[in-house]
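Researcher: Can you fold this with magnesium ion in place?
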Amino acid sequence: MHDLPAPPRVDWARSAAYLDFDGTLVDLAPRPEDVRLGRDNVDLLRRLSVRCNGGVAILSGRDLESLRPHVKDLPVVLSGSHGAQIEINGDPTLVPGAGAGIQDAFRRLTPFANARGLLIERKAAAIAVHYRAHPEMETEVRSKIEDMATAHSGLKPVHGKMVSELASKDYNKGTALIQLSNHPQFSNRTPVAIGDDTTDEDMFRAARSIGGIGIKIGAGLTAADYRFETRAELSDWLAETLEVQ
Ligand SMILES: [Mg+2]
């Protein structure tokens, strides 16, 4: 798909990076814990953080607990559970109210997932049903999640790649980006939001709303301004933009 151009060279000294994790920095794996951040990307993230003076965040649908082990020791800010959790300089916070209704929904979804051999994951502010091992169940899982969201006024359905979730309605990666952009590490820097999935669209729109840009990885309709076909193209571009000028 060539409807959007590749992004121009970014001046990281004046920018802040907001990056998705799965599908953007790592390949998707059958089980979420099986992903590995490659040594090349570890190196790129370290250099990016230096160039942005700490203005680098990874925003994931994952819980912080599930995200943290993969990025440990990297000088990056983390946001987990679709914007409901933010961890700056090792200090985690849950956005107030973000976990409401999650426990009840988890209790009700568990029998559904167990009966079908699907992996169900309880996050701080979301519940995920992974069907990567049973792709034929996509329709059934999606409609179950839709039904449950209808029944719980505080929750919304979030459909990603091989996963459907119930998440807090009031928070997303876009609200997290805006929140972070007011933090000293990120303020007065042009946001550059990069992601591959539907949940990254909130982040693209938020970045644009405060003068930044969005970069979409892969195919699909998007609110982003630029596109890369693959993760590898993103890594190459990052390496290029980080070369000493
Ligand atoms: Mg992703």
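Model: Folded with magnesium ion in place. The chain has seven helices and twelve strands.
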